[in-house]
Amino acid sequence: MEPHENTGHPRRWAILGVLVISLLVVVLDNTILNVALRTLADPVHGLGASQGELEWAINSYTLVFAGLLFTFGVLGDRLGRKRFLLVGLALFGLASLLSAYAQDPGQLIAARALMGVGGAAIMPVTLSIISNVFDPRERARAIGVWAGAVGLAVAIGPVLGGALLERYWWGSVFLINVPVVLLGLVLVAALVPESRDPRPGRVDVLGVLLSVVGLVALTYGIIDGGEHGFDRLPVWVAIAGGLAVLAGFVAHELRSDHPSLDVRLFRVPRFAAPVAMVGLVFFAAMGVMFFGAFYLQLVRGYTPLESGLLFLPFALAQLIFAPRSAAMVRRYGGRAVSTVGLLLTAAALGAFVLIDADTPIWIFSALGFIQGAGMANIMPPATESIMSALPREKAGVGSAVSNTVRQVAGALGVAILGSVLSAVYRSDVASALTGLPGPAQDAARESISGAYAAAAQLGPVAPRLIAAANDSFVSAMHWAAALSALVAAFGIVIVLRWMPGRPVPAAADARPAAEPELAGTA
Fold this sequence. Notes:
522 residues, mainly alpha, Growth Hormone, Chain: A, 3 domains, single chain
């Protein structure tokens, strides 16, 4: 074959557009949900969800998604990638419809878990299809467009969610997915060719079950402890049981000849360090975004749309700096760029300790911009280090591990930082509840959303309760922000100890083959 001949599919760029639509609907949904949390907590206009139920509405999706990502990648290769993409989109659309019309928080949590099944089917096969339809010389560019869709969804999600909540009921943030999914199904059926791996791997059923059970048990214990107190036996049974099952998962993966997660890779410092760095950063960032929505909409009184616009600088910083980060890595090395990114992220998170109920709001958005700029300089050096640590044939494994660690760390960040937030809030607000009716005390003790709902029924004493709830929430937010900053700062220690510096020639040589799989982790 002539070297100048393009071996890609004739409709490859149209196919890429279809895959971007499929990816957008998955990423968009999670960013939209952030601005809807306050509304979902409202007992009149939402579902009256508690703090713990809101955390599960986020984490039920994330845990299922992360637990099935590896297995669905293998099944898609075995059964047909187009077929799996169609099934994933259909499940995601059905789950979105069920979420929109959920009658209580339990139904929403179950529907979100089903949505995670659909998302896990969509995400890995889109990358596999891109690798199949694009010539190697165009593949990196195509993956760049694919990864850019993530940044676009992060940017427009909160604003779109806020605009929907301004005009329609809370279910609209889920219902918006349905027409996009229907369009995606038609276009995938019409344009995307079917493809399979001629040598598909085996499915590690036991490994998948152990990972999902362990993560769910651990997260349940953390969330339940934060909501109802850590002084109860069931909480520690769930936490200890989850850790024991995850230990069993690691032992099983070490013995398996077809592991769902090749834990042996974590013995390679140049691989383990960037993966740990990504996990720590997303642990810290997801927890902060969780309490940020409540701060803006309750303590500061902004509408969902205004809250979405105030989150926009975080996304804009990623869109501005992420495309330039790879060039910075080539010039200064992964260690230097990662360290600067982590310093910016930790500084921004730590500065939230200084935010109170009267802080000029532009400072909140400015800190979001700084945090976004820092996080934009973390993924490219992480990818560079992973590529230099693994042989070419392991590039897909590196991408899957990075994606899964990111999802799980984000879930644990919401769970743990949300638990800290709940525990400190309950402790601080208790003294202000004396003399209130029993139902009002229970509601106000549950969460700041409950305090606002109770205040609406109390008349003259309402301003005192709202002021106490705001003060308690801001104090709790400071504790959660300080913890998140410490977690991000710990990443600096890992980077300085194990991350490589300037890229070596071998890594550069390996990049064309490895980059298509790994670029999708951005």
